[in-house]
Amino acid sequence: MPALSPERTDALIALASRLGREKFAPRAARYDREASFPFENYADLREHGLLGLCIPESCGGLGADYRTYCLVAAEIGRHCGATALTFNMHSCAMMWSGTLADDLPMGETLRREHELRRARHYRRVLDEGALYAQPFSEGNLAASGKAPFGTTARKVEGGWRLNGRKVFASLSGAAHYYGVLCTEEIAGKEPDVRDTLYIAVDAAAPGVEITGEWDPLGMRATVSRTLLLKDVFVPDGEELMPRGLYHKAAGAWPHMFMTLSPTYMGIAQAAVDFTIAYLRGEVAGAPPGKKRMQVPKQMAVAEMAIKLEQTWALFHRAIAEARIHPDKASRLRALATQYTVMENANDLCRLAIRTCGGHSMLKSLPLERLYRDSRCGALMLPWSAEICLERIGRESLYEPGERDE
User: What is the pLDDT of residue 53?
Assistant: First the structure.
């Protein structure tokens, strides 16, 4: 997909900024406190066409390229982290079946079939306001790509039968469709990651169940409860990607797994924004008096500003390099970016609390929520902080096919 013009990208970022300032930020504390889904925010996103951000223009969407999506998502994250994180799940369902799939080799017949299928998903979003989730994790090695998904799909007449369990299923109870990654059951064959399917499951289908409590440290408004699939029938034509294509995409388009980082890039920016406004005496509820004249405060803000600029610089470079078959340096930089954004976001929130002082920890102010939300970033699969470190180390020291003698 060709990149949007700078003017079009800037206009979409400005729209996200306005919605964030006027709508999302004022609601964030309530959604966090209640651990409730931000339905009002999604009504705003729907009204302004942003649910179609990553749907190709040829299909009626806004046609955002990868970089534009990342910058818009970061701006949303600057005002409400949970909204940005769940917006990522929906947008990836559109992006993976759109921009990303368009880059992958397919025969003419298969491509025509895919275009017909994805058009059905896009029309649901554009005409009906449908919201798609992307449940990924299963509490095992599947989400990191080291094992096949335990959730299975068996081919039956007219469709598929799905069985399995997804944990931390964001948008649970709010999504209209769940884009489920699962392993195709093939008679006489062991489960294989190459047989991964990506199928949209109607939330209202018999056998779909949401279970468990949701009372986490941070990202509380994602409402990521457990999704159970018990002999769920999914009719043919609900695939979000053609059969077997997800595995190829995971290897050929690695930046597809970096789309969680914009949320935390936005949180990092919000922590610095808050600190500057607080020290200038511009935050309602802060103690009286301006602390900006104190040299230790000035030094701390300088340290935060430098760390933020370093993080933005790496983020901008990585999202500009996103493409099919990136070179080794770009792949490693994507992993380094994911790790850096997740860790620096939390560190900037830590520095903000230390710099602003005790009052900044009050729940009447947003900083303590930013801190809790930022701590969740390092845990996000499939590229958690630990996985990023492991892969950067291994892939720096070994070329494909090399092994110790």
Answer: 98
